[in-house]
Amino acid sequence: MTPHLDFLSIVVSDLAASIAFYRRLGVDFPEHTDGESHVEATISGGIRVALDTEDVIRSFYPDWQATPGNGRIGMAFRCADAAEVDSVFAELTAAGYNAELKPFDAVWGQRYAVIQDPDGNGVDLYAPL
Question: Across-strand partners of 1?
Fold first, then answer.
């Protein structure tokens, strides 16, 4: 058996803010999440994406400390084309999310950009050119 990606967990500081951000990228988290510290959604391909608060992580690993900025997770969202990369990036920055890397045509043949989620994690947006 060959292992395959099944589950992606993201440690978040503010669950509601992170749910709002990832919903804008099409991740369909449940509507009733008030008071929750762990939420999951299944995305295309059957991969489960979870958001866990820092408190949940500390309940299992009491000495765990959040690292500021990048480094909690890395992920990329494929867009239909270069124009969609630009429009999603523009929509997210207009909504107040931080731009890490403005859209550009990469030498590896993709329209590519990076936006930061509410915890400063870089979330890549790309499309083949």
Answer: none
Q: For the whole model, what pTM was predicted? A: 0.82
DSSP conformational letter for 48: E
Phi, psi of 76 (to 5 degrees): -130, 140
Which domains can be identified in the chain, with CATH numbers? 1-66 (3.10.180.10), 74-129 (3.10.180.10)
Angle between helices 15-24 and 82-94 (to 10 degrees): 150
Distance between CA atoms of 57 and 42, rounded to whole angstroms? Answer: 21
125 neighbors 115 (Cβ within 8 angstroms): yes
- Residue in the block written with tokens 């630009």: 86
- Show the low-confidence residues of the chain (pLDDT under 70): 1, 3, 68-71
Between CA 99 and CA 90 the distance in angstroms is 9
